[in-house]
Design goal:
Elements (H helix, E strand, L loop, with lengths): L1 H20 L7 H9 L5 E9 L8 H23 L4 H13 L20 E7 L4 E8 L5 H11 L4 E3 H9 L14 H17 L11 H17 L5 E6 L5 E7 L20 E3 L3 E7 L1 H6 L2 H11 L4 H16 L3 E7 L4 E2 L6 E7 L5 E6 L2
Parallel strand pairs: 3-4
Antiparallel strand pairs: 1-5, 1-11, 2-3, 2-6, 5-6, 7-8, 8-9, 9-10, 11-12
This protein binds aspartic acid.
Length: about 375
């Protein structure tokens, strides 16, 4: 309110000064529109993954790198909003910065599948129209979030996968790369550790179809370990623009050692990514649970139907519903007033935000 009235005064003072100087005609409509626009709330939040992130895990140098890249991603999206740009452009800009960094499990730093490939998933959603675009299992697209945007803007479809998604990508003005671009030593070593553990656990064959009960349990435990060990690292962004439109975007390499064409929650609209007129959500965590709990849609449904405040709705899903299922992770969300909430049930989540009051947060651990 205070901000509104201050800015309101700002607009009328411009008018008064102009009148006093007798140069009202010279004050362009565009300048006044720009001043008026600034009174509309804008907000943005981003995440770079949730999981077991302890202070003892990160050297001061690595922590500084994470914080700097989070700040860069946050600022690129916020700059779009401040210039009067759309929330869709803002979330895409933020996610692209994190996709280009080897630090996060998306784009350049994506994890490896069981077969030693980097298979990327992403989704974007426009809350003002409920338009959405998503891709899964692509191996040659430098910025998967931009391909998801192209699916939304330039195809009649919502979700494209694998070879088909790549065929579509070749028809679009987006940057393609050799799959080797996604090879990073850190992620490769994470896969080797998991493969070793899996072997020690006794999982049989590529399909696991001949596993007995113990072997199946061992494989599941190894997969659970995967969830802990790769520290997630998915990236996402949500934003409110000055027209009052919300958008959400999420991009990921999925989970280390995934196989059989596994797709997580990130590209599933309503699970890892969702936006409507009231609420935008991007999730990170153990995707299977986020799909089963329809996390992103459930939060927005609570806001819409139960009229719950955003933070309450998000906390009910992340800290209660998901915890009861056993699903680890977190979400970022923004509402149509520019309130931001960043709840998680793991030990940490790489996150950053600027809310409608201009309050800036960059954080990693729980405190
Ligand atoms: N949610 C992602 C997935 O399950 C992983 C993550 O958030 O790190 O594919």
């Amino acid at each position: 309110m205070m901000r509104l009235s201050l800015l309101g005064n700002g607009v009328s003072s411009i008018m008064n000064v102009a009148r006093m100087l007798g140069v009202l005609a010279m004050v362009s409509t565009a300048a006044l529109a720009a001043a008026a626009d600034q009174s509309a709330p804008i907000a943005i939040a981003i995440h770079g993954g949730a999981g077991t992130i302890l202070r003892s895990d990160l050297t001061p140098e690595l922590e500084a790198q994470y914080r700097a890249t989070l700040a860069q991603a946050l600022d690129s999206g916020y700059a779009v909003l401040k210039a009067g740009g759309s929330s869709l452009d803002a979330v895409e800009a933020s996610v692209r910065v994190m996709e280009d960094s080897p630090l996060f499990n998306a784009g350049k730093g994506a994890v490896f599948s069981h077969d030693g490939k980097n298979e990327l998933d992403a989704a974007i959603m426009d809350g003002s129209t409920l338009a959405a675009g998503a891709i899964a299992g692509v191996t040659i697209v430098k910025n998967p979030i931009t391909l998801a945007r192209r699916v939304m803007d330039s195809s009649p479809h919502v979700l494209l996968i694998g070879a088909g998604a790549e065929a579509f990508a070749r028809t679009q003005p987006i940057e393609l790369v050799d799959p080797a671009y996604f090879h990073t030593e850190r992620r490769w070593q994470q896969l080797q550790i998991l493969l070793e553990k899996e072997k020690a656990g006794g999982a049989k064959g590529a399909t696991g179809l001949s596993e007995d009960a113990d072997q199946s349990k061992a494989r599941k435990q190894s997969y659970h370990f995967t969830a802990q060990e790769n520290r997630f690292g998915t990236v996402g962004a949500v934003a409110l623009d000055s027209k009052g439109h919300l958008a959400a975007a999420t991009s990921t390499g999925g989970m280390t050692n995934k196989r059989w064409g596994r797709v997580g929650d990130a590209p599933v609209i309503g699970a890892g990514t969702y936006a409507n007129a009231l609420c935008a959500v991007s999730a990170t965590g153990h995707g299977e649970y986020f799909i089963r709990a329809a996390v992103a849609h459930d939060i927005c449904a609570r806001v819409e139907y139960l009229k719950q405040p955003l933070a309450e709705a998000a906390s009910a899903v992340v800290k209660d519903k998901l915890v009861k299922l056993g699903g680890e992770g977190g979400i970022i969300a923004v509402d149509a007033q520019g309130n931001v909430t960043l709840p998680f049930n793991s030990t940490g989540m790489y996150r950053a935000s600027i809310n409608q009051k201009g309050e800036r947060v960059i954080a990693i651990y729980a405190d």
